Automatic annotation (TrEMBL):
Known EC number: 1.11.1.7
Name under which the protein is recorded: Peroxidase
Organism: Lactuca virosa
Keyword Glycoprotein: yes
Protein purpose: Removal of H(2)O(2), oxidation of toxic reductants, biosynthesis and degradation of lignin, suberization, auxin catabolism, response to environmental stresses such as wounding, pathogen attack and oxidative stress. These functions might be dependent on each isozyme/isoform in each plant tissue.
Cofactors: heme b; Ca(2+)
GO MF term (any one): heme binding
Cystine connections: 55-131, 88-93, 215-247
Keywords: Calcium, Disulfide bond, Glycoprotein, Heme, Hydrogen peroxide, Iron, Metal-binding, Oxidoreductase, Peroxidase, Secreted, Signal
Catalysis performed (reactions): 2 a phenolic donor + H2O2 = 2 a phenolic radical donor + 2 H2O
Record's signal peptide: 1-21
Amino acid sequence: MKTSATVLSFLAIVFFLSASASNLPSLLHPLKVPRLPDISSFEDDLSYSLYQHSCSGVEGIIYRKVKEWVKKDPTLAPSLMRLHFHDCAVRRCDASILLDHKGSEKSANVSKSLRGFEVINDIKAAVEKKCPKTVSCADILTAAARDATVLAGGPFWTIPFGRKDGRVSLAKEAAKVPMGRESITNLIEFFQSKGLNVLDLVVLSGAHTIGRSKCESVQYRLYDYKGTKKPDPSIDPQYLNYLRRKCRWASEDVYLDATTPHKFDTQYYQNLKKKMGLLSTDQLLYGDSRTKPIADAFVFRFFPFLQPIQCLHGEACKYSGLHISR
Ligand code: HEM
């Protein structure tokens, strides 16, 4: 039940981004998720009420800042989501991606197109002003990624707080984060090493419903795939033409979801069915018997996607069919 609720609500992102999947609401009965004061602790020492007294209103500060930045530059919303993924993908969600010294995660090749650092710095400065030395950067990044998701039209979820900032940040560890050329077995193993399963892999890959990639990550699929002198056969011919035109230069940007690039929806999975996955790792999800049935569940809208109807900080957040009180 826990697992199906995760998929149903697409909020499995929470699994990874804020480790609170165990509190996901069921669609079968409109469920009232307990209010913050009702929940005192969470596994791993995370707590929904940690900052209630020590820094009340911190989520409001974060949300307003993210909103301000995303209004100026909407491309920052996907970038913040990805920044959080890359933080959590090395060690744990400990803000180690933000450390800026020689040989840190940030200096790794896989991190070179990460964006949104200035947003986190700006939020941190504002939060420090209100409550010095209280809120970790890891918590700020986690909440900022959630808010970016909401601002992009995606779902809202509650976040337990208490992540500790790490001091170790090594480029060689970041080098293990997938870049788009891995096999499904590699991806499953990587996710497993983080305590995530195949379902999480398929659901979280759905974050590629928005945002962009550098053409560098796909050019190898377009002309001489694996030395065949032919393109990757798993690309739709029309989409291939589009990509060849769009990706003349490695430095060009191309949307991860060619159909609805700015909308946080399940079109990403429809694209995979039409052989329009941008990254090889996206398309492979639809070509492997371990992941295809899960992707298909989204294609056939077996799992309804929840659109937030109203979501204001500090107020009730309503989704179709269920209410989440904060
Ligand atoms: C499953 C393994 C994954 C692989 C191989 C992968 C790979 C990539 C690559 C190559 C890019 C383009 C980077 C660039 O050229 O700038 C990208 C972008 C992105 N990724 Fe992933 N990713 C994975 C999982 C995730 C997860 C779990 C999330 C979040 C939950 C995520 C969120 C994003 C977002 C939002 C973008 C767009 C960033 C932007 O527009 O700035 N990815 N990913």
